[in-house]
Design a protein that fits this description.
By secondary structure, the chain is α+β, with helices and mostly antiparallel strands. The protein has helices at about 90-105, 105-155, 185-195, 240-255, 255-260, 270-275, 275-285, 310-320, 325-330, 340-350; strands spanning about 15-25, 30-40, 45-50, 60-70, 80-90, 155-165, 170-175, 210-215, 215-225, 225-235, 295, 355. The strands form three sheets. A five-stranded antiparallel beta sheet has the order 3-2-1-4-5, with no helix packed on it. It starts with 15 loop residues before the first strand and ends with a strand.
Amino acid sequence: MSEYGINLVPTLLGDYVNITYTFTFANGSVITYWTLAEIRDTANGIIAISEEITVPWRVTTVEYSVRYVPTSESVIISKSTTLSEVTALAPAFMKLLSYLFSEYRIYMIAGLAVLAVIFISLTIYFAAIRPKKQARRAKKRRYLDKISKILTSVISMRKVIVVHNDSGLPVFEWDLGGEITVDSSLVSGFLQAVSGMGGEISGGEAGAVRKIDYGQFCVSSAGTDCITTYLFSTGDISVDVETGISNFVDWFEKRFHAIISGTWDGITDEFTQNARQIVDTLSEELFIWTLHPLTVNVSKEKDVAKLDSFSQRIFKFIKDYKEVTISVSLEYFNKSPMEETLSKIFELVDNTFLLRKRLR
């Protein structure tokens, strides 16, 4: 203090200087704080030593002024002097971090570790877990949509006719949901004629399912070199049922190739005798099995414990009641969403925990 214009006299010891601090915050508010510092004789000379001060959080500027007013008689002739300086703080955030690390090192390290774990967890969630969950939900929606379209198609089915291509005569027919007033011989000839007019039928590739409108029905067809199968329905059918028609046609031609290849004599005895096998294959491929009771596969009982709880309940219910239709199952589990119950039943059938009724 002796070098800043104070008129020194031999003894300053025991006097005090007044230090005033002004803190300016980021929001513009100001706080003033003052303290006294005693003048002492130290190894570095006669100096005034003040107490340490703590700079409040979010302070952007510190101003301080030092004022000395002599009180000792030996220095009464000295002039009162005021010193001041404005100090701009280093970036507040960095200084705060420095302070926190120096005072609370353990807590700061623990806090940073927690933040690192949270950051890594969020990164893993958004990069891996969330996309997988979204993919599973999308897959489930597609599966439920598939089931819904299949059941809608099954409900709309009315008749199946298998026609010999060369003769145009019906080889086999099956009525679903009650007989419909259709002359099979007349209809088969008409459909064969229309099928030859590619411009009238959607589709076009050989073997692909093609469709036409016939009165109140939508007629879907698939054929091979020897036969064509026509499915009459009151509405459009799903892609899975279309695939079933193609599969059935291929099976039918291989099964009865010796009879229908070449010139067929028009006798249907062989097809009538094997009607149950034909109907059973149609039931499988066109999902008509969904209208018949389901039973449990006893050979899979040892694996039931691996299923989710809802699937286990469905399995037990059908096992207890021996044979149960899908509609009865839906009624029994009516407190669960219908889509969820249907999904589980189809999964159990696909994985052979449940067996459809065989008609052979």
